[in-house]
Amino acid sequence: MDKLAVNALDWTGTSLRVLDQRILPEQSKYDEFVDAAGVAEAIASMRVRGAPAIGIAAAYGVALSVRQHYCSDGDSWIDKVKHDMQLLASSRPTAVNLFTALTAMNTVLEESIADPVTEAMAKAEQIHADDIKANYTMGELGADLMVGAKGVLTHCNTGALATGGYGTALGVVRTAYHRQPLAIYAGETRPWLQGARLTVWELQQEKIPATLIADSAAAWLMKSGQIDWVVVGADRIAANGDTANKIGTYSLAVLAKQHGVKFMVVAPLTTIDWAIASGAEITIEERNANEVLPACYQHDASVIRAWNPVFDVTPAELISAIVTEQGVVLNPALQNGVRSLKKC
Ligand code: MRU
């Protein structure tokens, strides 16, 4: 495995260091957290963001909670840890990876184990390592679909910063770029600018040329014929293949259909929510209006307000391929969604 150029999360064994993505690319600064409350705040405030990275951070948050309470709180340690898990669960609503990770950590703690501290830490480390491994596999599988492609447009940030390392959609873009000449376009991703601030920064670290576009330039770019694939990540995929991802993804899928451009979703199995039949059941996070409003309107909502949903749902029928570490589902709307990937 290549040495990772960028690490969103750095686990020290006694703390979690989180690269503050709110201030990238101007500043590269890690904040250190020693308890679950700190990690929950780091997720809610988007110091760390991106569905897989949120899940991994939450797993380490549970490990920190067990470490804090097991030795000092007697028999009530598990109640304290459960309380911390609730705190972590309430940090952001849409990415199912958060809940998948918390369930996995809970399962470890509920099994009768000799050394909860060591085993919780080991489980969190395993969740992190599994995610990196899945990303490399998806990189190959997604790039296999892109043979002959000359141009790709990606949205938001789905790279090392959003995952355990390497990335989902951006991992596919990286792998494809190393195989063939590829023009890479990144949408700036308003309002939080994950594309403009994070994706192009990651690519610059690796000297991979990329072109940044305003989100509103996507239709015209597709019309120019330069884009063969739109490649995006996901925060939650329903069993029928409907996919929640960063606001603007649905617009890109509609545009892709209009222009005959193929549309790929890349996400690990931890992003699939088997419990929901369709995207209609996905909670869409709405964040503070001030992320959208110019400063001069922020103190008086009597006339000008803002609506700030930060995800949308792309229906399965607009998706050409869903790529996971376990395999690819082509045209999920014609294949019973992603159900063929369910282990049992
Ligand atoms: O609000 P964010 O930045 O956490 O949203 C991130 C996305 O929408 C990503 O596309 C998604 O989490 C996949 S990251 C591999």
UniProtKB/TrEMBL annotation:
SUPFAM superfamilies assigned: NagB/RpiA/CoA transferase-like
EC number: 5.3.1.23
GO MF entry, a single one: S-methyl-5-thioribose-1-phosphate isomerase activity
Protein origin, superkingdom: Bacteria
Residues the entry annotates as binding substrate: R49, G50, A51, R92, Q194, N245, K246
BP GO annotations: L-methionine salvage from methylthioadenosine
Catalytic activity: 5-(methylsulfanyl)-alpha-D-ribose 1-phosphate = 5-(methylsulfanyl)-D-ribulose 1-phosphate; 5-deoxy-alpha-D-ribose 1-phosphate = 5-deoxy-D-ribulose 1-phosphate
Catalytic residues as annotated in Swiss-Prot or TrEMBL: D235 (proton donor)
Keywords assigned: Amino-acid biosynthesis, Isomerase, Methionine biosynthesis
InterPro entries: IF-2B-related, IF-M1Pi, IF_2B-like_C, Initiation_fac_2B_a/b/d, M1Pi_N, NagB/RpiA_transferase-like
Pathway: Amino-acid biosynthesis; L-methionine biosynthesis via salvage pathway; L-methionine from S-methyl-5-thio-alpha-D-ribose 1-phosphate: step 1/6
Transition state stabilizer (site feature) positions: C156
Family: Belongs to the EIF-2B alpha/beta/delta subunits family. MtnA subfamily.
Function: Catalyzes the interconversion of methylthioribose-1-phosphate (MTR-1-P) into methylthioribulose-1-phosphate (MTRu-1-P). Also catalyzes the interconversion of 5-deoxyribose 1-phosphate and 5-deoxyribulose 1-phosphate. Part of a bifunctional DHAP-shunt salvage pathway for SAM by-products.
Record NCBIfam families: eIF-2B_rel, PRK05720.1, salvage_mtnA
Protein name: Methylthioribose-1-phosphate isomerase
Protein source organism: Methylocucumis oryzae
Gene, per the UniProt record: mtnA
